[in-house]
Amino acid sequence: PASRSMAGRAIRATPDIDPAVVRAPLRLPPGHGRETALLLMNLMPGSMVQRVLGEEVELHTLSAELAPAEQWEVLQRRVAAAFGL
């Protein structure tokens, strides 16, 4: 999983990073659920929201191997369920 991968990267003498920017669809409607998901994404290992572009989110990641777009999809589904969307 991504968390194990990040832990390994953190303890290496030479960091194993390959920064990338990944775009992913914004599926949540505007409102509190969307804002919550955008904030929570910044807590995911090695990834953060860089900006929102229309109906897409731009994610900055330490490595595309961390699958930030997939993390984002799962997070959106969980937030949607929590907010009853």
Give your account of this protein's structure.
The chain is α+β, with helices and mostly antiparallel strands and about 80 residues long. It has helices spanning about 1-10, 30-40, 70-85; strands at about 20-25, 45-55, 55-60. Strands 1-3-2 form a three-stranded antiparallel sheet, with helices on one face. The longest helix is centred in the C-terminal third of the chain and has 16 residues, at about 70-85.
The run of helices and strands is HEHEEH
Which term fits the overall shape? elongated
* Residue windows where pLDDT falls under 50 for at least 5 positions: none
Strand content: 15-25%
Distance between the termini: 27 Å
Helix count, DSSP H or I runs of 4 or more residues: 3
Alpha-beta classification: alpha+beta
Helix content: 40-55%
Question: How many strands?
Answer: 3
Spatial strand order of the main sheet:
1-3-2
Averaged pLDDT? 88
Q: Main sheet?
A: 3 strands, antiparallel
User: What is the radius of gyration computed over CA atoms, rounded to a whole number of angstroms?
Assistant: 13 Å
Features:
85 residues; alpha+beta; 3 helices; 3 strands
Please render the helix and strand layout as text.
Elements: H1 2-11, E1 20-25, H2 32-41, E2 47-53, E3 56-61, H3 68-83
Antiparallel strand pairs: 1-3, 2-3
Summarize this entry quickly:
This protein is an alpha+beta fold and 85 residues long. It has helices at residues 2-11, 32-41, 68-83, and strands at 20-25, 47-53, 56-61. A hairpin with a 2-residue loop joins β2 and β3.
